[in-house]
């Protein structure tokens, strides 16, 4: 497949991906076995027209961010992702850089937990994948540019991500959440010192956020594990849930999950969020 064009690779891999693996129902009305073009567009955060232009070869200079988003949406292997980058005339991501691929095993795991809010983050706290319950709890990340789907930018930046972030407080105390994110970024930078995107993120936040600068030299090296968080929801009010961060060492990912003990107000509010999703599909 090395001599295929970007558009041919895109079409072939879109046809290959089982819609159910991407969270879409199988239907007898489907004329093709794989993802529809509009489904790929939704998963990658692109317009359907732009995906069409990519497949037809009319959009010839996709950015690295676009290619990475498409590769994640199609669940490509590292080799396939690199092939897609080369077909776009771009250098494949270098070794020792922050990974953005969510392995199929992780997709299967989080798909099984679809009745809980779940987000999958890269080592730099860029949001790579989320489910409908995450959207119901935190708002829809797909309305943001891909670069703004980053938790550190949402907490300390000046862009759209910051203004879309719903209020979050931690039971660990004031600024414990923010301090833990800064500590995690410092640890990530020690593992990926040559990653230009991570370095640019840190430099940008140090330039634009006095609070980030204040935390940077004093944040410890402890990694996020679990916490009791309260999210200000526009319809449900304060939603207090157990927030756990599961790490995927081989891929250096963080799976963030929200749960509540049975019989608690938080459990009732999660049920309400599930109910709202059912109502939207009717």
Automatic annotation (TrEMBL):
GO terms for molecular function: DNA binding. It comes from the Bacteria. Gene3D superfamilies: 3.30.450.180, lambda repressor-like DNA-binding domains. SUPFAM superfamilies: lambda repressor-like DNA-binding domains (SSF47413). It holds the Pfam family MLTR_LBD. Residues 28-81 form the HTH cro/C1-type domain. Coiled coil: none annotated. This is Helix-turn-helix domain-containing protein.
């Amino acid at each position: 497949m090395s001599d295929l064009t970007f558009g041919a690779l895109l079409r072939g891999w879109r046809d290959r991906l089982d819609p159910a693996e991407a969270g879409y129902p199988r239907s007898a009305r489907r004329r093709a076995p794989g993802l529809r073009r509009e489904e790929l567009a939704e998963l990658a955060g692109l317009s359907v027209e732009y995906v069409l232009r990519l497949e037809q070869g009319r959009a010839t200079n996709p950015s690295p961010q676009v290619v990475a988003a498409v590769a994640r949406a199609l669940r490509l292997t590292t080799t396939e992702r690199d092939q897609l980058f080369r077909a776009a005339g771009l250098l494949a991501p270098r070794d020792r850089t922050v990974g953005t691929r969510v392995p199929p095993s992780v997709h299967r795991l989080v798909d099984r937990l679809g009745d809980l809010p779940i987000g999958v983050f890269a080592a730099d706290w860029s949001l790579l994948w989320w489910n409908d319950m995450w959207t119901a709890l935190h708002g829809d990340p797909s309305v943001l540019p891909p670069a703004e789907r980053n938790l550190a930018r949402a907490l300390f930046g000046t862009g759209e991500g910051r203004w879309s972030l719903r209020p979050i407080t931690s039971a660990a105390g004031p600024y414990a959440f923010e301090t833990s994110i800064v500590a995690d970024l410092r640890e990530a930078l020690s593992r990926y010192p040559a990653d230009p995107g991570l370095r640019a993120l840190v430099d940008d936040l140090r330039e634009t956020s006095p609070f980030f600068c204040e935390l940077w030299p004093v944040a410890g090296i402890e990694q996020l594990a679990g916490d009791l968080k309260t999210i200000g929801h526009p319809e449900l009010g304060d939603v207090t849930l157990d927030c756990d961060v599961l790490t995927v060492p081989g891929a250096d990912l963080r799976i963030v999950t929200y749960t509540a003990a049975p019989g608690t107000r938080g459990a009732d509010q999660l049920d309400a969020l599930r109910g709202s999703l059912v109502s939207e599909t009717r």
